[in-house]
Amino acid sequence: MAYLLFNAGSNSNHQLSPIDEDFAEFKFVSSFESSCQISTGGNHTLILSNRRVYGAGLNDCNQLGLAGHSISTLTKLDWLSSLYPNHQTTRILASWSTSFFFLESNTLPPLLISVGDSGFGCRGVADVASTHPHSPINLPLHNHALIHANSSFRHIIVILRHLHTNTYNVFGWGASRKGQLSPANSGKPFLSTPHLLLSTQTPIFSARTGREHTILHSADGLIGWGSNTHGQLSLGAFTRVLDYGCTWRGTVVYDALPQTLPFSLPQPPPSLNWQLAANTPSSPPQTTPSGPSAGMNTATSA
Fold first, then answer.
1. CA 130 to CA 170: how far, in whole Å?
2. What is the three-class DSSP state of 277?
3. Which of 20, 116, 176, 263 could bond 185 through an S-S bridge, CB–CB 3.0 to 4.6 Å?
4. What is the SS3 string spanning 195-235?
């Protein structure tokens, strides 16, 4: 079975295709023999298929770990297997100009590797100037399972579950001034290494990040941190979340209809009401009972 890759949008740094043009509509680019993970940064693309990682697009900050300012075609990132021959890449993540690779092994602890822009602490490693460009991030992966990771412009969230206590620990690094790395870190320009932001026995399933806000999905509902200048943290009414996401300064929630909403649902136009009525199967006419048995249940015996 072939898996087909289609792209559309800006292609200024060949993050979609080697063709020197933007795509106004989806176009076929490549095919893969197995399913893919796809993660996109500001101007670069990562694809993971059959444990092999490919990258294309802007490489000005070494976000692809390859030689050259930009990579015009999907290129296999062989340096991962060369540097870590006992590990295999199982997850990928791209932020604006930084890339992350989660590596697992049958004999060694897992690793989370970062490459690319270190501004605002995005790489998650201390003393970047003297650190190897592919150094692992300091996270307790030897006794935790990776549940989810997400990043956007300049901050990264990683959710881990302790293997013995089943405690859910949320770590984060990067830009923090607006409180997107928890209220406790509000006002700090950035965190250059992973900090523990939340530890709880309540399951936390996933995270989404906007430019200056973070949404966590827990068993108790949604948790919001960071900027609320556009109401992106108004989450109290959503309790049965099916899916959700963050835009630059907004939040989108796909929710089973709650009992109460923080807003009024718009009424459908009269034409739609008419169509709904016209498509509703008609019921047999009801007759109004009369006589002594009116309003009573009666039984007839033979």
1. 27
2. helix
3. 176
4. EEEEEECCCEEEEEECCCEEEEEECCEEEEEECCCCCCCCC
DSSP-H helix ranges across the chain? 79-83, 270-278
Rounded to an integer, what distance in angstroms lies between the CA atom of residue 154 and that of residue 159? 17
Over 50: is that where the pLDDT of 276 sits? no
Smallest CA-to-CA distance from 109 within 130, 131, 82, 139 is with 139
Nearest to 201 by CA among 168, 162, 171, 170: 168
> Taking residues 238-244, what's their average pLDDT?
87
**What is d(CA 30, CA 7) in angstroms, rounded to the nearest whole number?**
9
Beta-bridged to residue 254, according to DSSP, are 243
H or E segment to which residue 153 belongs: none
pLDDT tens, residue by residue, 114-150? 999 999 999 999 877 656 678 899 999 999 999 999 9
Cβ-proximal residues to 258 (8 Å cutoff; 6+ apart), any chain: 237, 238, 239, 240
pLDDT at 19 over 90: no
pLDDT tens-place string over residues 68-114: 899 999 999 999 999 999 999 999 999 999 999 999 999 999 999 99
DSSP-assigned states of every residue in 28-63: EEEEESS-EEEEE-SSEEEEEETTEEEEEEE-TTST
293 phi and psi, to 5 degrees? -90, 5
Nearest to 180 by CA among 215, 222, 226: 226
Label residues 203-212 b or e (16+ Cβ within 10 Å = b): ebebbbbbbb
Residue of 96, 89, 102 whose CA lies nearest to 45: 96
How much of the chain, in percent, has pLDDT values that exceed 70?
Answer: 83
Residue extents of the structural domains in the chain: 1-135, 139-268
- Residue 285 DSSP one-character state: P
